[in-house]
Design a protein that fits this description.
227 residues; mainly alpha
């Protein structure tokens, strides 16, 4: 009696098993060392320790906090503004968080619900389970616009939906830009001791968020027709 229906089935099982084992090893090795992600000052000191490689180190750190320690990423977003300034800090944050979000969505889709149940807080999973499919990407866009929600964990939950990866990533990236821009502006204002400057930027970002929300249908239609 054959254990696997086909050679492709055997390869898929091996790949999934290897991925789960690798993820488990990474979680075991790295999670204790990522506790400092809850403090912007600690993140700043850690990244500065890499010298000229600090930008690359920060991007990798942002990926890690999205995939390995799925907590709200605004902490590292504030540190990015403190370290690199508002615009460059936002750019580095978005590079890292976009890559991390894509990895989270793909892992969730490839490995399925058992994997997500292991890496996402049960309270978050219970609250948002079925939310993506039932309410659609437009509502997901609104959720990602709200600072403080467990957006990284929601990337794993979103991966369980039937929404295409292209649509999910479009929503996730566009909705996260204003949040990380505000976080970087806050960090930069702390570095410059100038809160008034960031207040104006926050107002501009608020208007841009509303415009993005207004045009989200057109954006998603474009994605559907080209990807």
């Amino acid at each position: 009696m054959r254990l696997f229906r086909s050679e492709e089935s055997r390869r898929n099982v091996i790949l999934r098993t290897a991925t789960v084992l690798a993820a488990a090893v990474l979680l075991y090795v790295l999670t204790p060392s990522l506790d400092f992600l809850s403090s912007p000052d600690a993140v700043r000191d850690y990244v500065r320790g890499f010298g000229v490689l600090s930008a690359a180190a920060f991007v990798l750190l942002q990926i890690a906090q999205t995939v390995i320690a799925p907590i709200p990423g605004q902490v590292t977003g504030v540190a990015a503004g403190y370290l690199f300034g508002t615009w460059v800090g936002t750019l580095y944050s978005m590079i890292g968080v976009s890559i991390g979000s894509y990895i989270a969505v793909v892992l969730s889709r490839r490995l399925g619900r058992p994997y997500v149940e292991r890496v996402v807080n049960p309270l978050i999973l219970d609250r948002f389970d079925g939310f993506m499919t039932d309410r659609g990407p437009e509502t997901l866009f609104i959720v990602f616009l709200i600072p403080g929600l467990p957006d990284d964990a929601l990337c794993f939950v979103a991966g369980l939906s039937d929404i295409s990866v292209a649509r999910l990533m479009t929503v996730i990236i566009i909705a996260r830009i204003p949040v990380y821009l505000i976080a970087a502006a806050t960090g930069n204002s702390l570095a410059l001791n100038n809160l008034a400057r960031s207040a104006g930027l926050v107002a501009v970002v608020g208007v841009l968020s509303l415009l993005s929300l207004w045009k989200i249908d057109s954006i998603l239609e474009f994605v559907d027709s080209h990807f």
